[in-house]
TrEMBL record:
The keyword Cytoplasm does not apply. This is C-type cytochrome. Residues 42-114 form the Tetrahaem cytochrome domain. Its cofactor is heme c. InterPro entries: Multihaem_cyt_sf (IPR036280), Tetrahaem_cytochrome (IPR012286). It comes from Desulfuromonas versatilis. It comes from the Bacteria. It is found in: Cell envelope.
Length: 121
């Protein structure tokens, strides 16, 4: 019974981790988020319009995820005031790219001052 419970706990932990947006190999040395895997099948142009060398803008994020104030935070916040999507500093929120990165882990812009609130994502 203990082995069954441990196996289920381990499987659940792996499923939860996979949904957290782990970096996975896309092609060659390029990594990307596991939850965007279906986008990679269409190539880089989905987020990098026109050319993979072009910078991504917030428009690419908004097309799929919606406006920043409509996006719910699914992680536990250390305090309600720590919600980066409803920041007192940025009113309508900072750029998506100030906190999120597709191909690398990144510390959110809030962590520059609020060092204990956020981890690299």
């Amino acid at each position: 019974m203990k082995k069954l419970i441990m196996s289920l706990a381990l499987a659940l932990a792996m499923v939860v981790t996979a949904q957290a947006g782990d970096l996975v190999t896309i092609k060659g040395n390029t990594e990307g988020r596991s939850y965007h895997k279906s986008l990679y099948e269409e190539g880089c142009n989905y987020c990098h319009p026109g050319s993979p060398k072009k910078q991504v803008t917030d428009a690419a994020c908004v097309d799929c995820h919606g406006q920043i104030n409509d996006i719910e935070i699914t992680k536990h916040l250390k305090m309600p005031e720590a919600n980066p999507h409803k920041s007192v500093h940025y009113n309508q929120g900072a750029s998506c790219l100030a906190c999120h990165a597709e191909h690398t882990r990144k510390a959110p812009v809030c962590s520059e001052c609020h060092r204990t609130w956020f981890d690299k994502m």
